[in-house]
Amino acid sequence: MNDELFSDDFFADEDDNQVSTYPPWNVLIVDDEEEIHKVTKLALTGVEFENRPLHFISAYSGKEGQLAFQEHSDIAMVLLDVVMENEHAGLDLAKWIREDFHDHNVRIVLRTGQPGQAPETSVIRDYDINDYKAKTELTAQKLFTTTMTALRAYQHIMILEHSKVGMEQVVKATKNVMDKQGFVAFTKAALEQIVTLINVTDTLLLDLTKQVFETDINRRSILTICGTGKFAQEEQQQHSTTTLPFAELIERAITTRRTIFEEQELLIYCQSAHYAMAFYIQVDTSLEALDKHLLEVFTENLVVGLKNIDLNDQMKKAQREVIYRLTEVVESRSNETGFHVKRVARYCELLAQLYGLSEEDCETILFASPLHDIGKVGIPDRVLNKPAKFNDEEWALMQTHAEKGQQMLMGSHLTLLDAGAIIAGTHHERWDGQGYPQGLSGTDIPIFGRICALADIFDALCSKRIYKEPWSIESVFEYIEQESGKFFEPLLVSLLLDNRDKFLAIREELTDE
Length: 513
Hints:
single chain; alpha/beta; Rossmann fold; Beta-Lactamase; Hypothetical protein af1432; 6-stranded mixed β-sheet; 6-stranded antiparallel β-sheet; about 50% helix
C-alpha cells in the first residue's frame, strides 16, 4: 500500500472551519400589484424556518407564475392572488400547478382582495389549495403564522417523499447486489450502490472475515479490496488494524456489530455466520437522519445477502463433495488416475479464463468437469479396461458413456451437477459435426463441452494408458493444431497453443509419477 494514502494530511479537511449550509426556502409571490410584493417581503424579512431563510420569487401574472415553476423545481410555498390578467388567473394557475405541472407538494395559499370573485367554499371544494385568505385579514403576524404552517407541512411532505424515493433506491440497490454471486462480487456491487444511495465519493471496501473469525490472534488481518475517490488506487492487500487510521472504528463496529456514525466519517458493518465486511466512508457534511435510515435499511439487506452467500457456499461445498465421491467411483473402475480428472479440471478452468468466460463460469467448469466421464460406470469392465483396440461392437458400447453420463446428472437443478450433465453429454462432440452422441457442430455445442473436449484430449494424448504410451509434447501440439476447425474450435486451439507453457506447468504440477 502507498504509505501516503493513509497519512494525516490525507485525512485532513480541506477547510476545518467550513460550515455546511442548507438552501433557503423558495416562496413564490404571484400578484399583479407591486405593493403586495413589497409588503409581503417586508413582513417576512429575516424570517427563518429550521435555520433556513426565505428566498422570494416574484411573478405578476398567471403566465409568469408558470414560468417561475419551470425555472425553479423546489418551490415550497405560493402566495397566490386570484384576480390578475383575468378574474380567475390565480385559480387557473393553481389548477395548472397540480394537474399539468404535477406538483402536489408545494403549499398553495390563495389570497384575494375580492372574496366575492372567488367564494371560499367553492374554491376549497373545487381546487387543490391549502389555505384561503382575504388580503385584508393577512396582518404581519397572521402572514408569519400562515407561512410557518405552510413550510412545516411542505417539509413533512418532502420527508415522506424522500423516504419513498429512498426506499425505492434501496430496493433497486438491493436487487442489483443480490444478483451477484460470490463474496467479492457481492461486496463490490454493494459499494457501488452505497456511493449512489447517499451520494458519497470517498469510500473503502474492507474484508474483515479473518479479523472476526480467525481464532489465532496472530493470524488475524484486514483485507482492503477496492475503493473510490481518495481510495480509488487502493489494491487488495492484507493489513493489521494498527496500520489503519480508522482502527478504532473497526474495533467498535466488530464489538457492537453495528454501523458506526461519526461527524464526517462512518463505518458500515455487515456480518453473517462466515463473512464480515465493512465500508469506510468519509463525508464532507454530516449525514442527515434520512440518509442514516436508508443506510440502516440497506445494511440489513446486505446482511441477508451475506447469509445467502453462506447458504450458497454450503450448497456448493455439498455439490463438490458429491462430485468428488462420484469421481472416486469412476477412478475405482478405470485405470485412469485421479490426476487425470484434476488436470482436465485445471485445463478447463484455464481455457475458460482465456476464452473470457465469467468468473462464475470458470469456477463452475473447474468443479463440474471432473464428471465428464461419469457415464463410464455403466460400461462393462471387459470394455472399459480392455488393453487393446476396440472392435466395432465394443466401440459402439463405449460411445454410450457420454449419453449415460448426461442422463445420470441431468434434472438436478443444481448448478454444478447440471453443468456436469452438459459436459458429460457433449465433450465428445466435434466442431465439424462428426462427433457423438448427437453429432452437434460449431457453436451448437455448449462452450463447456467444447472446452472439455480439448482439455480431455490434450491430457489423454500426453498420458500413458493401458492401451498406449504417452505421445511426445511436440506430437500432441502438432495433432491439436491439425484438428483446429475439425475436432476443436479454432479459437480454443489458438488459446492453448499461445499459452502452452501454462498448460505444461499444470501437467508438471499434477504429474502421475
